[in-house]
Amino acid sequence: MEKENLFLNCGSEQFQNFFCNPSWENSVEQNDPFESALSSMVSSPVAYATASGNNDGENIVIRELIGRLGSICNSGEISPSTNTSRYSTPLNSPPKVNLSMMDNQIRRNLQNSGNNFPSFAPFSTDPGFAERAARFSCYAKLGLNNDSELPHRLVPQLDSGNLSRVSSNQSFKFSGSPPMGVQENRNASLQEGISASYRRLGRFSRSSTPEKTEFGDSRENSSVSEQIPVGENGFKGQNNSNSRKRKSVPRGKAKEIPAKDVNVASENSESSAKRSKSYDESSIEKGNTIKADASESDKVTGDGNQKQPKENAKPPEPPKDYIHVRARRGQATDAHSLAERVRREKISERMKVLQELVPGCNKVTGKAVMLDEIINYVQSLQRQVEFLSMKLAIINPNMEFNVEALMSKDIFGSRGSFLHNLYTSDAYPSQSQPGQNLHNGIPNGTEMPFQNGRNQSIQMPTLDNASEPVSQASTFWEDDLHSLVQMGFGQNETQSFHAILPTASLTIFI
Amino acid sequence: MPSIKTRFTYRFIRAVQKLNKNRGVSSSMKETYRRYHMIRVASYASMASAVGSKRAWSQAVLRKIRNHTLHRDLKKKCGIHALIRRRKVSENPRNNLNFHQENDLRKLVPGGEDMDFCRLLNETAHYIKCLRTQGLHPKTQLLER
């Protein structure tokens, strides 16, 4: 019997012969470790088969095989756990295909065995396995042409490609999405060629599914990245949920497919895959005819669309060299407006960057107001530079700079150099006269002279009339500094120096 | 690779030192004003050279300074290339969305007249970052001593 062949012939070649599909050979050849693992796994039930007899033995054996398959795949989905670590690496590449093949074959075997045992009882009793089976059916390769469930099989291949794209974009914890990344390159060329047939099949399947109306509703508000779990949500009756609502929901529900929804879920994903494919088509071909196709059946909100342009522009699958921009719904799709939109997005991106730089711009929205703020900020910064350079010119005409001391403030924050410089401040009073005069002449300090920009000359008050206030000011300056100096040079007080001296200088000049 | 901040600080301090060495003790108004001007130019120049020629605004600053020292009257703005670029920029309909403010911004950012708006925003962002370090960091330190 075939089943006994399956279980008793543990060699990998026999597996290949059993599956007897030449198109699978390429993938199968790469899986020697997997094959050996499978064979070793499969060989153990042989003991059961021989021990316990005919149908019951087969029943138990098959159930156990299915369970082990499920456990393998489960360990592949979740991050490789300790006891199944040896299965994790073989599962990283096309082995999912083999699993699905095994899955099909097992099912076929179960069906062929003439319903000796309820063929789906083992499936349904293990809800986890049913969930996995649904996923595996999605990951079947294109080579499963001979399968009777044609639309069910073909479209999921697209689905896998989409899943990989989606997962790369949004890092869904969908099972098998990492392995699908490997398959993606191979599938890409195939996908382009069979897109038309997918659409046809999609329509066919759409008409056949009883939940079509639900899908229609659920599609209306969905975006590409959410379509696959959205299908399940739609099935669960959340027809009227918005795209916003689905954003939180699908992530939680991505893994929870109830057992009885296996078939429907797979068909959900199939039609959703079709739709996501049509969305991608529109992004690739800048959506002329295909968009018309999709638009007649779908309406997508602007929200959903806004997420797409960046994400769909980035996936690696289109084999062309120019930048892909997704055409939004209801907007012109000619080259000019698309380029305009790209440019506008660039500008808004940069405005956001600027918004972070300029303090106090978070509440402000709108380009014009933002620009005003930016202009004000740049002007104030420039004024500050001028003011400080003015200060420097006045205060430090002859002061010797200790470069190391100055730089050491960055490095060590030393206070010794500070004290050293403070000693030289005795020179201040004599040279502060012009500074004082300047201060007296300019009420505002910064505003007036620097108002006209950095290329204007400064109106300086003359020294002549200001002898008395100068002397008073200079004495004041001197007193101030002396008081500072007299505060002592203990370590504890240098902190206060740091605090006081800047304010002192500021009070003088403002 | 030292940061822009340290590079700028270093250059600026050296420039001011050189300035103070060359100038006399004179504290006349004129002298102070000239010193102020020198310090300001030194500040912008050291900032621009710390940034290098990677940015359009730093290039424009350095160009302006060099031309200013060489030919006092001739401004680089009148160079033929700049004229051509500016004409292209002003004729481009894309660049005049918020006419008034864009022009103001272009006047503020050095070299801003020759770019399109998108690039202008880029340059403005970088310019703001550098202006901040220029204004805050070394000068306040120098003043505190």
TrEMBL record, chain A:
One Pfam family cited in the UniProt record for this chain: HLH
Basic and acidic residues bias: start-end ranges: 209-220, 308-321
Record's keyword terms, sorted: Nucleus, Transcription, Transcription regulation
GO MF assignments: DNA-binding transcription factor activity; protein dimerization activity
BHLH domain mapped to chain residues: 331-381
Record's compositionally biased regions (Basic residues): 243-252
Region (Disordered): 160-184, 201-321, 429-461
Skewed-composition ranges (Polar residues): 160-174, 429-439, 452-461
This protein's record includes keyword Ribosomal protein: no
Main localisation: nucleus
GO cellular component terms given for this protein: nucleus
SUPFAM superfamilies: HLH, helix-loop-helix DNA-binding domain (SSF47459)
Location of this chain's protein in the cell: Nucleus
Record protein name field: BHLH domain-containing protein
UniProtKB/TrEMBL annotation, chain B:
InterPro entries: IBH1-like, IBH1_N
Swiss-Prot/TrEMBL keywords: Transcription, Transcription regulation
Source organism, top-level taxon: Eukaryota
Residue ranges annotated for the IBH1-like N-terminal domain, each copy included: 3-67
Keyword NAD attached: no
GO biological-process terms attached to the record: regulation of DNA-templated transcription
Record bears the keyword Ribosomal protein: no
Name of the protein described by the UniProt record: IBH1-like N-terminal domain-containing protein
Organism, scientific name: Fraxinus pennsylvanica
Lineage of source species: Eukaryota, Viridiplantae, Streptophyta, Embryophyta, Tracheophyta
